[in-house]
Amino acid sequence: MTVKYKFVPRTFQDVTKQRPDVLKVVTADISDDVITKIYECKETAIIHSKNSNSNHASISNAKGYDFIQEWEIKYAIDHILNADYTNVSMLVSSNGVIHLYSNKETVLLN
User: Fold this and answer.
1) 56 with 100: CB under 8 angstroms?
2) Closest C-alpha to 106, from 55, 57, 48, 49
3) Which residues have C-beta within 8 Å of that of residue 65, sequence separation ≥ 6?
């Protein structure tokens, strides 16, 4: 007899409306034409900012960089950025946040 398990697909939930405190801090220095959304799954958060010129997602985990999983990065590219892997640049900042940029943007490093 075969046992079939129903695994719940791992997804991020849009929590933008529930996190006005975070949204206020994130959008403080951003122009009005940028749409910003916040997604969470357990202890990992993705902040997505998009306008006609840019498409950027930052991924962070409350426990640190080492706890961000590969599927979370893939999810951000596939479902949030809606981009092809070959058109995405990845940068890890000094505080352990992963930044994903679509290639139409120019990434400037200080």
Assistant:
1) yes
2) 55
3) 92, 96, 97, 98
Q: What is the dihedral of CA 63, 54, 19, 30, to 10 degrees?
A: 110
- Contact, 81 vs 88, CB < 8 A? yes
19-77: pLDDT as tens digits: 988 888 887 777 778 889 999 999 999 999 998 888 999 999 999 999 999 999 999 99
Rounded to two decimals, what is the model's pTM?
Answer: 0.81
Q: Can you tell me which residue has the tokens 């046992």? A: 3
Place of tokens 């959304």: 37
User: Which residue, chain included where needed, has tokens 């080492």?
Assistant: 66
